[in-house]
Design goal:
ATP-binding; metal ion binding; Rossmann fold; NUBP2/Cfd1_eukaryotes; 9-stranded mixed β-sheet; 13 strands; alpha/beta; nucleotide-binding; Nucleotide binding protein, putative
Length: 325
């Protein structure tokens, strides 16, 4: 059965490119695993897949099993035993796995030049041919706009899952919890997100809330906050459209450094950059995560945006799992 083992599905949408949708998807996934949830990220941005780079797995390859493609594991779950009692186990951190067209390319620099029908077929194959196993939350990272990929994912999910918790539980299919919308404070981004909200209304996909990304920049030296792209536009739009506003995310320099430090090859240096260039880049600014061998999720705890996304996930879990209580 398609999506066998997946309990809840959340779409991450943005009307405009460049608003940080993929980084928001990753941070939501990291925060959810720290809540003890097993998480999968399905990257359907076919022409610009960025999840493999963000998680430092660009060189990973997809493997086949009798039940379908096996997603790439970013890190496993962490389970502890209470007082050495094997019957008392607690999941302190969930696992994170990813699936992206980037894992299927021969070279990460290859361009995906596909027409609409092939994009639609690829999205549907991702939904039917990937074996996720036991997964509490599947986050779907979408491309900007409302194009072929959105139509394909919307139509497919509405047949493979249900927007009703009761119906999903009774049928043993995933619960399509809804969509998280990502915007920046500028008017041009907000106008495009309005179109995305209308897309959700027309496709009957619930809207879980809006995140205003890049809402200010906190200077790491003096702590002064500068509003690079104004402030509050996402909250005003959410109020006007009568949808929940989850909160604001300022530019996090440490998260950017974390992403840049993700190792690509065995030597930890991008094969497209020679040693002299790498040394020169290191001389310009020392990255605190450069020689940090901890898991991605453990390093993320040091980022300023971690407490913000921890609060976001608590809000989402309250909305999604509150229906069970």
């Amino acid at each position: 059965m398609p999506l066998d083992g997946v309990k809840n599905i959340v779409l991450v949408l943005s009307g405009k490119g460049g608003v940080g949708k993929s980084s928001v998807t990753l941070q939501l996934a990291l925060a959810l695993t720290l809540q003890g949830k097993s998480v999968g990220i399905l990257d359907i941005d076919l022409t610009g897949p960025s999840i493999p780079r963000l998680v430092g797995k660009e060189d990973a390859k997809i493997t086949q099993s009798p039940r379908g493609w096996i997603p790439v594991e970013v890190y496993p779950s962490e389970i502890t035993q209470e007082n050495g009692n094997a019957n008392e186990v607690t999941t302190t951190r969930g696992s994170l796995r990813c699936m992206s067209v980037g894992f299927l390319l021969r070279d990460r620099g290859d361009a995906v030049i596909w027409r609409g029908p092939k994009k639609t077929a690829m999205v549907r194959q991702f939904l039917t041919d990937v074996y996720w196993g036991d997964t509490d939350y599947l986050l779907v990272d979408t491309p900007p706009g409302t194009s072929d990929e959105h139509i394909a994912i919307g139509e497919s999910l509405l047949t493979m899952s249900s927007t009703s918790r009761t119906a999903a539980t009774a049928s043993g299919i995933p619960f399509l919890a809804g969509a998280v919308l990502v915007t920046t404070p500028q008017a041009v981004a907000i106008s495009d997100v309005r179109k995305e909200i209308n897309f959700c209304v027309k496709t009957q996909i619930p809207t879980l809330g809006v995140i205003e990304n890049m809402s200010g920049y906190t200077c790491p030296c003096c702590g002064e906050v500068s509003n690079l792209f104004s402030r509050g536009g996402g909250e005003v739009m959410a109020a006007e459209m009568s949808i929940p506003f989850l909160g604001r995310v300022p530019v996090d320099v440490k998260f950017g450094q974390l992403v840049e430090s993700q190792k690509i090859g065995d030597d930890g240096i991008d094969s497209d950059v020679d040693d002299e260039e790498a040394d020169a880049a290191e001389d310009v600014q020392q990255n605190p995560f450069e020689d940090d061998d901890r898991l991605l999720v453990d390093k993320y705890k040091d980022c300023w945006s971690h407490p913000i996304f921890e609060e976001f996930t608590k809000q989402l879990l309250s909305k999604i799992e509150g229906e069970l209580n």
